[in-house]
Amino acid sequence: MKMQIHVVDHPLIKEKMTRLRDKNTQPKDFRQLLDQIAQLLLFEVTRDLPVRHKKVTTPLAETTGYELDVSGITVVPILRAGLGFLDAVMDLVPEAKVGHIGLTRDEETLQPIKYYCKMPKDKDAEIILIDPMLATGGSAEAAITMLKQDGYKHFRFMCLVAAPEGVALVNRSHPEVPIYTAALDDHLNENGYIVPGLGDAGDRVFGTLE
Ligand code: PRP
Ligand code: URA
Fold first, then answer.
1. Can you tell me which family this protein belongs to (predicted)?
2. Disulfide-capable partner of 110 in 13, 15, 192, 193 (CB 3.0 to 4.6 Å)?
């Protein structure tokens, strides 16, 4: 089956991703780059959202403008690393609601373990799941499955780096969910890390590296 993935191919993203991947980039700069890439990605992730006409009066004339119904959007960071994306996304869609899902990978089995979930009630919302890394795909797959079981219906997934293994799992389990990424990398190593990747995203965002 052909992989279904939108790789947002843009010189600004490529250049910022290169600095982000660099192991010498410090958490402060890492977070700033993450914010910038998140906003560039969101441009593509939201491209097909509907707009309504709205009148606007400029200093010269009245004209037709547009408004986005962002109240129908729920942004859902997968904790912990997904929080690194949240502020930048909310800057662009400030009326969106926010849900939180806490998942962490068991270091040995690589299976996701759920430890938190708090979602807004609107089951018809367009859910934008955000998590920097799509590695085995277990976390993304589990998050979408969990939300579907609770009655949520519309999803799109945004990440920084995806591995082919993770894309394949999400495509197989949730073929209708579009995946947007800044980079599609080569493979997973024996510890389930994306190669070349950028290491542990949560540790790099929050400065918890040993
Ligand atoms: C990272 C990342 C994803 C997950 C991806 O989180 O933020 O949620 O790994 O891996 P997967 O596709 O194989 O499931 P991690 O479990 O390291 O937790 P953290 O965000 O708390 O550091
Ligand atoms: N989680 C990360 O933070 N990085 C990877 O490469 C894989 C999973």
1. Belongs to the UPRTase family.
2. 192
105 belongs to the catalytic site? yes
What is the 207 CA–ligand 2 centroid distance (Å)?
15
Over residues 23-67, the pLDDT tens digits come to 999 989 999 999 999 999 999 999 998 889 999 999 999 999 999
Q: Which residue out of 107, 184, 200 has the highest number of ligand 2 atoms within 8 Å of its CB and is therefore the one to mutate?
A: 200
Q: Is 125 in the pocket of ligand 2 (CB under 6 A)?
A: no
Task: Please give the Cα distance from 190 to 116 (Å, whole number).
Answer: 28
**Known catalytic residue: 122?**
no
Which numbered ligand comes closest to the C-alpha of 80?
A: 1
Candidates 1.10.3720.10, 3.30.980.10, 3.40.50.2020, 1.10.287.180; CATH matching 5-51+67-206: 3.40.50.2020
142 Cα nearest atom in ligand 1:
14
Q: What residues have CB less than 8 Å from 27, skipping those under 6 apart?
A: 204, 205, 206, 207
Give the pLDDT confidence of 139-187 residue by residue, as tens digits: 999 999 999 999 999 999 999 999 999 999 999 999 999 999 999 999 9
Domains of the chain, residue spans? 5-51+67-206
